[in-house]
């Protein structure tokens, strides 16, 4: 070991080890063997399989943990269920006190939590002590506040119920906080499963919960393999699954929960760009890169793992970066002067190393600095790979380790195109001293967190979550509350649908034989003159159905009320293309300001109002409703257009009160192209209640009107034509609902599907959406009162029409 004088002379870091004594004492107290934490007690199951917790830096076995089987999962879910009703009824101000007690206890046990986290995961104590544990406490403080305010501020909502939560190994405590804090604050109870390689800190957290006096059963923590995870996901008494992990497993969960009525939020993988413009403060940006990719050994979902540097500064920047990498310190995670600790386990180490070899084989130049490395333990050098093509696998796939790939760009357009050239969309970092440029680029990159001249910032007050295959749902902030709340009018949907046993069934769903002439049962055609068959509406123009098939629309008494085109896959593809073009046009629908969109919605309402008698008559003829009910539906539709004209410029976002010295803005961005399958009940009101919020918030839509009663929707395109709606913003394809929906769900360029058809269709929409993890909102074939202000126009419609992007901008010199 160096003596003081030597350290002084060389100015090298001396060793600064953190003591593991308290952690060892805790492990010994448990005889280094843990059971399951259920009902605030340790449950030891006789003969249960066990799994070792290993310190990746030393290879030392820290403890044995138990593998949950079905009986354990059932016991934990039953405990959560028993506790849930009382917990939900506990006044918010009391729940807030429990949350506060948890937060305080975290602070009181700060050090042991940090040391345990570093020993179990391999992350530097500097990070677990200064980032993970403080953020753990922060989340419980933040959501204690929402528990206190819930009755007043969220009175239209209730708890979802029992929540199954599954987390990964990279931030065991932080992921736990993101999941448990909002859930229990809002009256839910939880069963949480940590990842196999990092279980210990979650188990210690269980003791903290018990110490805080939280009622038994509110927080249950069970350890087990992916099989136990699957048992939680498929448990019939679980009302929601909140998952953080890989996109691959997220896809499995989407399919397993399809059609069950369980809520699902998915926080998945990423390959986030780190964009450096020529006018950036390059030295600051270098420190930014170090933090972006080598924080937690690069095992960070939002790691800035794709470096994009403007061509004319790239050589200088890469040279500086290599030099800086040469000063990184890799070693014992419990040493306070260490930059990078150990990779979590051997399997992950091999995966990372495998990817570096792929990079080499793809023609990449691999750079690893000549730095001291520990002789044993799962350490990996910080690695930079240059000279890769944009389509290279190492550029496209998440490596989840200390490996940075780098590319160059010439101008902002190219930077944005490269940044968005990914199936993910979790985060991005933009570096430029030109604030106008930086914010413009930030607004155009499709990702949930945008850091301007900073990186990897998190806070309880700001939501975190992905676009596209990075998942859906947000954790943190007010937006994170929606994941754990259900409108008060709505029961937990429990659709009765037997899940098909074979995957072959997917080929069957949505198959349809094109329509043919239909003999009316009644008196025949009920029309007052010349035959008029409406066409489809695509890109602002009437379009004949591609297949040249026509469907009859019959009244309840069997009279022929009219005919519409019978759409097919090609019609849907044309409509998606038109919707996409309207979205990306310059300026696209999303880029128009809210004032403009609101004026257009008012204009639609005005034009519908001018023809209200005609629409009422049509409704009456199609549905057999009374004249009064038909008029009421038209009036309610006009009112709904007014509602969303109002919301068009009032739901843009908020300033978040994070700990950043600067500004964190939550922007409610449109989702993109939404495919909407409308209900048969209230064919006009249902259509407008779904279309209006979507377009008010800047989305473009492909509407599949009521299959049974489509004529008010086809009449409606004349209203759109006269209301200044740009072509492609609303596209209308008539035909078999499920047949058309299937093409929409499978389409890569559709960002979200809203489906209000059958129970079976709801299942398939959720199941098939896993292909590219598009967002879905389905009705499970359950009734909904479209006239009701909450059911037909509640906040859910706005939430479903938007995705939150948080932009972080530090201020000061
Ligand atoms: P993972 O393999 O998907 O595992 C995550 C969790 O799911 C673990 O608890 C795992 O249990 C469990 N699991 C695995 N298969 C399952 C199944 N079929 N059913 C139910 N549960 C199952 O991911 P990981 O390797 O632990 O974590 C790395 C990934 O997480 C990366 O892709 C990263 O980007 C992502 N991540 C995302 C965020 C975000 O907020 N978006 C944050 C952190 C990490 P076992 O450990 O027992 O296998």
General form: globular
As a whole number of angstroms, the C-alpha radius of gyration is 28 Å
Total strand segments? 32
Provide a count of the helices: 27
Counting helices, strands and paired strands, the structural category is: alpha/beta
The share of residues in extended strands comes to: 15-25%
Output the strand order for the largest sheet. 14-15-16-13-12-17-18-32-26-25
Q: Tell me roughly what share of residues is in helical segments.
A: 40-55%
* End-to-end separation: 40 Å
Question: Which ligands occur here?
Answer: NADP nicotinamide-adenine-dinucleotide phosphate
Would you tell me the overall average pLDDT? 96
What report would you give on this structure?
The strands form eight sheets. This protein has a ten-stranded mixed beta sheet with strand order 14-15-16-13-12-17-18-32-26-25, with helices on both faces. Strand 28, helix 23 and strand 29 form a beta-alpha-beta unit. The protein contains 27 helices and 32 strands. With 813 residues, it is α/β, with parallel strands linked by helices. It starts with a helix and ends with a strand.
């Amino acid at each position: 070991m160096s003596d003081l004088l030597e350290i002084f002379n060389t100015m090298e870091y001396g060793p600064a080890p953190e003591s593991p004594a308290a952690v060892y004492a805790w492990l010994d107290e448990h005889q280094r063997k843990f059971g399951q934490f259920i009902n605030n007690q340790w449950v030891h199951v006789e003969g249960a399989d066990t799994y070792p917790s290993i310190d990746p830096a030393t290879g030392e076995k820290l403890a044995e943990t138990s593998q949950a089987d079905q009986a354990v999962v059932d016991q934990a879910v039953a405990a959560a269920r028993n506790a849930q009703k009382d917990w939900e009824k506990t006044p918010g101000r009391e729940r807030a006190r429990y949350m506060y007690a948890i937060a305080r206890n975290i602070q009181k046990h700060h050090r042991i939590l940090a040391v345990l986290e570093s020993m179990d995961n391999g992350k530097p104590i500097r990070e677990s002590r200064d980032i993970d544990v403080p953020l753990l406490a922060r989340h419980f403080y933040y959501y204690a506040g929402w528990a206190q305010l819930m009755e007043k501020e969220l009175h239209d909502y209730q708890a979802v119920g029992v929540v199954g939560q599954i987390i990964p190994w990279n931030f065991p405590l932080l992921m736990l906080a993101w999941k448990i804090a909002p859930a229990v604050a809002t009256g839910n109870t939880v069963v949480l499963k940590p990842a196999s390689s990092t279980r210990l800190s979650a188990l210690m957290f269980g003791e903290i919960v018990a110490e805080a006096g939280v009622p038994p059963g509110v927080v249950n923590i069970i350890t087990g393999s992916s099989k136990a995870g699957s048992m939680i996901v498929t448990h019939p008494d679980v009302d929601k699954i909140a998952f953080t992990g890989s996109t691959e497993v997220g896809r499995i969960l989407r399919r397993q929960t399809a059609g069950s009525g369980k809520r699902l939020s998915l926080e998945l993988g990423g390959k986030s760009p780190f964009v450096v413009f020529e006018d950036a403060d390059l030295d600051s940006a270098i420190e930014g890169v170090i933090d972006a990719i080598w924080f937690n050994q690069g095992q960070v979902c939002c790691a800035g793992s794709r470096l994009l540097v403007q061509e004319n500064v790239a050589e200088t920047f890469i040279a500086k970066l290599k030099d800086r990498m040469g000063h990184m310190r890799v070693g014992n995670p419990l040493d306070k002067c260490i930059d990078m600790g150990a990779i979590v386990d051997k399997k992950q180490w091999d995966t990372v190393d495998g990817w570096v070899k792929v990079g080499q084989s793809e023609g990449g130049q691999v750079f690893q600095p000549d730095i001291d490395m520990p002789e044993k333990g799962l350490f990996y050098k910080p690695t930079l790979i240059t000279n890769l093509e944009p389509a290279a696998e190492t550029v496209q796939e998440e490596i989840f380790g200390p490996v940075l790939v780098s590319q160059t760009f010439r101008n902002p357009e190219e930077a944005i195109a490269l940044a968005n050239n990914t199936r993910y969309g979790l985060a991005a970092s933009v570096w430029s001293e030109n604030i106008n440029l930086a914010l413009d680029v930030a607004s155009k990159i499709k990702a949930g967190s945008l850091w301007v001249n900073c990186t990897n910032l998190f806070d309880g007050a700001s939501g975190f979550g992905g676009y596209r295959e990075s998942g859906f749902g947000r954790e943190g902030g007010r937006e994170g509350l929606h994941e754990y709340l259900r409108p008060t009018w709505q029961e937990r949907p429990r659709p009765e649908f037997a899940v098909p046993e074979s995957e072959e069934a997917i080929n069957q769903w949505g198959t349809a034989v094109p329509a043919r002439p239909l003999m009316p049962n009644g008196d025949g055609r009920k029309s007052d003159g010349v035959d008029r068959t409406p066409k489809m509406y695509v890109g602002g123009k009437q379009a004949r159905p591609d297949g040249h098939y026509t469907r009859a629309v019959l009244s309840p008494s069997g009279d022929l009320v009219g005919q519409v085109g019978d759409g097919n896959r090609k019609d849907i593809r044309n409509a998606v293309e038109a919707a996409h073009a309207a979205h990306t046009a310059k300026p696209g629908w999303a880029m128009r300001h809210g004032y403009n969109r609101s004026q257009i919605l008012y204009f639609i309402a005005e034009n519908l109002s001018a023809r209200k008698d005609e629409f009422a008559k049509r409704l009456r003829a199609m549905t057999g409703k009374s004249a009064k009910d038909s008029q009421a539906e038209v009036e309610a539709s006009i009112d709904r257009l007014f509602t969303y004209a109002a919301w068009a410029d009032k739901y843009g976002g908020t300033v978040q009160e994070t700990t950043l010295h600067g500004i964190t803005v939550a922007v409610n961005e449109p989702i993109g192209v939404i495919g909407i399958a409308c209900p048969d009940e209230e064919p006009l009101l249902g259509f407008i209640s779904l279309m209006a919020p979507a377009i008010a918030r800047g989305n473009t839509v492909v509407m599949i009107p009521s299959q049974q009663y489509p004529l008010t929707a086809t009449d409606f395109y004349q209203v759109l034509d006269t209301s200044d709606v740009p072509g492609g913003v609303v596209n209308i394809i008539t035909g078999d609902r499920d047949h058309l929906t299937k093409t929409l769900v499978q389409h890569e360029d559709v960002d979200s599907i809203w489906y209000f058809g059958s129970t079976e269709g709801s299942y398939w929409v959720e199941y098939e959406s896993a292909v590219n993890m598009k967002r879905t909102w389905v009705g499970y074939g359950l009734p909904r009162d479209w006239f009701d202000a909450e059911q037909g126009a509640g906040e859910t419609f706005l939430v479903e029409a938007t995705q939150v992007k948080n932009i972080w901008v530090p201020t000061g010199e």
